[in-house]
Amino acid sequence: MLSIKLSDLKPVDVQNYLQHAIAPRPICFASTIGKDGHVNLSPYSFFNLFSSNPPIVVFSPARRVRDNSTKHTLQNIIEIPEVVINIVDYNMVQQTSLASCEYAKDVNEFEKAGLTQEKSTIVAPPMVKESKIKLECKVNQVIPLGTEGGAGNLVIAEILMMHIDESILNADNKIDQTKLDLVARLGGNWYTRANASTIFEVEKPNLNLGIGFDTLPTSIKNSKILSGNELAQLANVSSLPTVDPSFNDDKLKNIIQYFSINPEEMEKELHAYAKQLIQQGQVNHAWQILLALA
Ligand SMILES: Cc1cc2nc3c(=O)[nH]c(=O)nc-3n(C[C@H](O)[C@H](O)[C@H](O)COP(=O)(O)O)c2cc1C
Questions:
Q1: How many angstroms is it from 8 CA to the middle of ligand 1?
Q2: E strand segments, the chain
């Protein structure tokens, strides 16, 4: 294990380690306007949802590590405390990267990146037409997190209006996560994509409280075959299952018959079979297999 005291590193190396470790980070396009009327559009991955009541997003235009200068986004927000947060998806990831070039303050990155300005309904900065989700926000607070290069400026913005493209809605007018094709930033030049082929579901924790690892029978808890993820699914049941007399499984019968003179091997085989069932989402079935050993 490499243990690093961050104060021993150069800011650029701190940034490198942290951006690789705290990833993937969602990406927004922040659109702002200065009091001279110049529009700015810049991507931010130090960005997240922090509250839903009130609805709050935060993002952080940092002081440049190179020369400690501040971002135009921050300068605009201080002049006019409004921002549109446009959610970035895979279709616009290259345009997003292009818009992050350090153009002069009077340059409109919408034009540089080939994106279309769309008038907002409440706030002054325009929205990105191509973005499938746009959040019109007022800025409640800007908290400078330091004064040196690399210091973030925490922008706390309250969402006043949300616009959602119909193409990503399901029949109940809710967002279909498989249709959005979000992208997120990791360390260096790495990005990742969240679409139907990469996302997966994890069942919510049992509202009646799962039994927990500490209640699992020792032979299961100490299994060399079942992983932490698999044990967690077994431990998410409301009460310790008991043998179901009507349970019938040919493979279980075969294992018991074949390995009857070698209990250690039998346990391995049963755990391997249970593992396979858990991976297929058949947790109750897996419990019945494991209970055969009890
Ligand atoms: C995907 C992506 C995410 C970024 N995230 C951040 C960030 O969270 N904070 C930051 O200060 N700069 C970030 N940058 C760099 C800024 O977008 C870049 O410095 C931009 O030029 C700032 O523009 P401005 O000075 O016009 O506001 C990011 C760049 C990219 C491509």
A1: 26
A2: 25-26, 28-33, 39-44, 47-52, 55-59, 82-87, 117-118, 127-128, 133-144, 153-164, 182-185, 191-194
**Treating both helix axes as pointing N-terminal to C-terminal, what angle do 283-291 and 263-279 enclose, rounded to 10 degrees?**
170
φ/ψ of residue 117, rounded to 5: -80, 135
Q: Which residues have C-beta atoms less than 6 Å from ligand 1? A: 27, 40, 42-46, 60-62, 71-73, 96-97, 100, 102, 185
| CATH no. for 6-194 | 2.30.110.10
Q: What is the pTM of this model?
A: 0.91
154-187 pLDDT per residue, tens: 999 999 999 999 999 999 999 999 999 999 999 9
Q: Which residue do the tokens 């029949």 mark?
A: 171
Q: How confident is the model at residue 66 (pLDDT cuts 50, 70, 90)?
A: confident
Domain boundaries, the chain: 6-194, 213-291
Q: Is the pLDDT of residue 47 over 90?
A: yes
Nearest to 286 by CA among 224, 244, 254, 238: 244
Alpha carbon distance 40, 48 (integer Å): 20
Question: CA 209 to CA 235: how far, in whole Å?
Answer: 10
Handedness of CA 164, 169, 173, 174 (dihedral sign): negative
Nearest CA to ligand 1 atom 16: 100
Report the separation in Å between the CA atom of 61 and the middle of ligand 1, taken as the mean of its atom positions. Answer: 7
Please name every residue paired with 267 in a beta bridge, in sequence order, or none if there are none.
none
> What are the φ and ψ backbone dihedral angles of 86, each rounded to 5 degrees?
-110, 125
Residue 135: strand pairing partners: 85, 162
Question: How far is residue 196's CA from residue 200's CA, in Å, rounded to a whole number?
Answer: 8
Q: Which atom of ligand 1 is nearest to the CA of 105?
A: 26
